[in-house]
Amino acid sequence: MQLDQITFTRFIAALSVVFFHYGQSVFPANIPFLFENITAGPIAVGYFYVLSGFIMAIAYYQPDKNKQHAINKKKYWIARFARIYPVYLVALLLIAVAKLSVIAVNPAQLPLHLLLLQSWIPSYPITLNTPGWSLSVEAFFYLCLPFLLIWVYKFGIRSLVIFCIVIWLITQVVLLTSLNSSFYAPKTLLHDFIYYNPLMHLNSFIAGLVVGILFKKSAPSSAKRDLSLWIIFSFTIIFLLIWGRAHIENLLNYKIALTNGLLAPAFLFFIIILARDRGLFSRLLSHPWLILLGEASYSLYILQKPIHGLYDKIIVPRLVLSDTQHFYIFLLLLILLSITSYHYLETPMRKFIRNRFSSA
What we know:
single chain, 360 residues, mainly alpha
């Protein structure tokens, strides 16, 4: 089942993470009406998790229950390792070289990051390569997927739907209660738990998985249908929810977080509409160049910090430019290096690992 039209959305989400980290004061993030959406990096990570669950369902769920053991766990986990770890390791080692003195003070950082365990331990998730915390979470999802599929095969999708709703509600209660308690403060152990712990994001992945399974079971026809207006409508809902968060907080005098699955229903509505579309947006987003950017988005996401560090150290002192000019030169360099990484690091290493170890 080809869903090329969704691929480019990964690039847009990754781009918002880059703006969140390095471009909050540059155009168009400096336009007040657009700021919340352009710099919605943490929220975009939640979109990654929902989309990941959806794509995993499309790739691995078998509607025929007789195929319940079709997923080979060893090959599956090797494939997932091959997908994320090579570039992750390169980015981590680049950061580790730059932070040798920091690692020497707290040597536990490096093995936790190497083993993708940093998000489980408060105070460690963003100690080295900051975006890597989300890969620690994603690795947990990959570990869970075969067992979640077995659950569906044995007990049916309804039981997983109920479980998803329950953990979604529990997550929101824990998150909002903690966020508004007197114990909460940024950069504390409680902050690290509610924002980075994999269990606090599991609802997003399972929501995507559930909807992906239902989508695949429904076997939508490939008949032409132009859902452009629905795509615009669903995107507008997401835009307004992100834009309106601060206004709602001020109105209610209550902190709200959109990062841990609260927007999962809106994300899934957008994904389903986009997946079913066969009109203008589908044709546009299926352009090979946009698909390439979507495929390279993982490298863009995970390499942003080491590349920015190198740019800041090597290029910035030699070019007297505005912050905006520096940001867009860095962004262009990051995109080009991400495409290069996708072609010459990600893809070859993925093939090598899968061929070398899947048959062992």
